Input
Amino acid sequence: MTETAQKKKKKLSPLVALGILLALVMCVLGLIFPRGRELPVISMAAERIPIPLPLPGFQEGFPNTLPTALLTSLVLSVLALVYNLSARRAEKTGRPNRFLVAVDALFEGLYSFVENIARDKTRALLPLVATFFFFILTANWMGLLPGVGSIGLYEEHHGERVLVPFFRGANADLSTTLALAIISVIAVQVVGLRFQGPRYLRKFFNFSAPPNSGALGPVLRIANGFAGLLEIISEVSKIFSFAFRLFGNIFAGEVLLIVVSFLAAFVATLPFMGLELFVGLVQALVFSMLSLVFYTMATHHH
Amino acid sequence: MSKKPLVGDLGDAAWVLGVGSQAGITLAGLVLAGLVVGYLIDRQLGTLPWITLVLTLVGAIAGPILVYRMVTRAVHARIEPPEEKQDIG
Output
């Protein structure tokens, strides 16, 4: 070992030392605390928080993904407001603060990410794609905050005492992801109509045959009609694939975290938390990238 | 070393992951959709295995066709810049 390496090894940064200390404390706590006696009930649908007011549409209670989704929107709105204020201040003083620079760097990365695929359509497609990305990313990561899925009310369900958490990761409910998927697929049609005009609809309803097809004409017409039917099936299948991929990944992550923290508290959960951070980012990236691919495909005429 | 390759790599990875997972879900989903819809129709009409079998087969045949169309278009949209506007630089 060289001298410099030995020097580096000797010098322990206070942050690392604190981390090791915390991990040790958590190990001891994990041994002292008894593990859960029974696995908590895992519900695939969002649990309903009972509310005293008879609101129309919420007779059975409030789905617990709704507060998280609203909170996600609130967090993003506040960040946007802070960015706006920082930008105004930077215009006056000529010195941008750290938050402004960080957001600008993030957005530049996202811009070149979209530009790589959409090229000259970047300005038209970026707002929607970026909204999907930021909303899904924030919602996924907010699902990992302490308190989400663990603080709630105990309720009787079919004779069992069940914990109804106040917050549940917004994308761990099929309703949220289905809504996002429907918005995305409708946007594909809107983008197609905007860039191709009525010609876009010929993709779905095309019963024409090339003029020189002769006796094969009727067969080609039927084949084109069938291709249009396939296109319609393909658009519908996009909604389900978008919705189920996001829901499946995030819900599976939540179940994994619940099961691991039931088996061994504190320390064993940490690597999975890191994994979930990564999965949340990848799923946000995949959803927005796939939306972008479909928008770009809709702008092309085939 | 510039920053651009990193963004490009990440974008490429997300593109491959997105299109790949879409292809997988389409293949499996259409067979499943054929099965479920066929079973529901069969149960209504009391013709149990037949419509289920036919629709499952239709799903299994339509899946690869749709995946082929989607992937070729996605690759075309990726490779060919639209309206002869080449990306220079």
About this structure: The radius of gyration of chain B is 20 Å. The interface with chain A takes residues 3-4, 7-8, 10-11, 14-15, 17-19, 21-22, 25-26, 29-30, 33, 62, 65-66, 69-70, 73-74, 76-78, 81-83, 85, 87 of chain B (CB under 8 Å). Chain B is about 85% helix and 0% strand. Residues 84-89 of chain B have pLDDT under 50 and may be disordered.
